[in-house]
Amino acid sequence: MSNADKLHEIRAIIVRHKRWDLVFMVVGMFALMIAVLTFTVLFTQMIIDGMPRLSWDFFTSFPSRRPGSAGILSAWVGTSLVMLVTIAAAVPMGIGAGVYLEEYAPKNLVTEIIEINVTNLAGVPSIIYGLLALGLFVYQLGFGQSILSAGLALALLILPVVIVTTRESIRAIPVAIREGAYALGATKWQTVSDHLIPYSAAGILTGIIIGLARAIGETAPIITIGAMTFIAFLPPSPVQTDFPFLSFEWLMSPFTVMPIQMFNWVSRPEEAFQLNAAAAGLVLVVMTLAMNAFAIYLRYRMRKKIKW
Question: What is the DSSP letter of 233?
Answer without folding.
Answer: S
